[in-house]
Design goal:
By secondary structure, the chain is mostly helical. The protein contains six helices and two strands; from the N terminus they run ββαααααα. A two-stranded antiparallel sheet has the order 1-2. Helix 3 runs antiparallel to helix 6. The longest helix is centred in the last third of the chain and has 48 residues.
Length: 248
């Protein structure tokens, strides 16, 4: 049976080197182009109609905008709407990567830790820079949970620092691990269905169908979790444990 990790291997399709940087094209790069092109096409076509009675694409675009707007208002308040373009781009890109990766023969870009890691580090770096820009040195107060007695500070501050540094790691690993694990399980089940023959192969094949349906839900949930945590981190930087009240 073929290794279930085989679909995650990347091979150069076109070698490109520029100023010492390897810019070679592989199927992950092509898949990113497909995701960006398809997402842009659907949203631009959906937003261009602007009919009183919306069509399917316009309804999908409006539903998506309302959904992302709700996430931002719930986690960051009205002040967070300034980050709507960034949050919306992040959610749509991850969601399309996850969903299109379920098509047999395609590639799941978010199954690469370097991709999810780059997203997580960007989000966390943004939250830190934003925090210092808005609050200056007072942003370090994020390391002190509200109501902590003074004698507990030497213990709590290192714990909070570790918690802060773990944020980008957990953000990257959660998305990468979930997308990889699901595809590995599907690969194993599909391999068992082929090698099992007609007599017993139908059982893993039935599980494969059920897993595919489950993977669609996981693809959406993981994009949602990544987006919510992004908003929470940016919201923490803006409001410092909610000290600055934000209107919903």
């Amino acid at each position: 049976m073929e290794s279930p990790l085989h679909p995650f291997e990347l091979h150069q399709l076109l070698h490109i080197s520029l100023f010492g940087f390897d810019l070679s094209i592989n199927k992950a790069v092509i898949m990113m182009w497909v995701v960006v092109g398809l997402a842009a096409f659907l949203l631009i076509r959906g937003g261009a109609a602007r009919r009183l009675v919306p069509g399917k694409l316009q309804s999908l675009a409006e539903l998506l905008v309302d959904f992302i707007r709700g996430i931002i208002l719930d986690t960051m308040g009205k002040d967070g709407m300034r980050f709507f373009p960034f949050v919306a781009t992040l959610f749509v890109f991850i969601l399309f990567c996850n969903l299109l990766g379920l098509i047999p023969g395609s590639y799941t870009v978010t199954s690469q830790i370097v991709v999810t890691g780059a997203f997580a580090l960007t989000v966390y770096a943004m939250s830190v820079v934003l925090g210092f820009l808005l609050h200056g040195v007072k942003f370090l107060g994020i390391l002190v949970p509200p109501g902590t007695p003074g004698w507990l500070l030497p213990l709590m501050m290192p714990i909070e620092l570790i918690s802060q540094l773990a944020r980008p790691i957990s953000l990257a690993v959660r998305l990468f691990a979930n997308m990889t694990a699901g595809h590995v399980i599907l690969g194993v089940l599909f391999g068992l269905a082929i090698t099992g023959g007609l007599l017993i192969g139908w059982l893993p094949f039935a599980f494969t169908i059920a897993m595919n349906a489950l993977e669609v839900g996981i693809a959406f949930i993981q994009a949602y979790i990544f987006t919510v945590l992004t908003c929470v981190y940016l919201g923490d930087a803006m409001h410092l444990h909610g000290h600055d009240a934000h209107a919903h």
